[in-house]
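Problem: given the chain below (115 residues), write out its structure.
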Amino acid sequence: VQLVESGGGLVQPGGSLKLSCAASGFTFSIWTMSWVRQAQGKGLEWLLGISSGGNITPYEDTWKGRFAISRNNAKKTVYLQKNNLKVDETAVYYCAKGGYGTTELGQGTQVTVSS
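Solution.
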């Protein structure tokens, strides 16, 4: 299993992010995929999952309408988008193979929200 996130970097407060996760080594199209983030010194924060058929599950009600998750099974890629980023959303963002609590995460991509 290989999960490679990209699209991180420095973003100004109020800016947007679009992250990608390219998957390989397994049958991507049949797996739920998730996004997770971890701020420095804090635990994992589970954001959303998307099923093989495209059904979306926010893992906390807080995330409803704040993040967008999508997937392209032909490209074996899952995406995460968010607008209006805040400084406290600085974190390493990981994609994960499976739903809430899975231990199969990518190496992560750093998103730093700062002016």
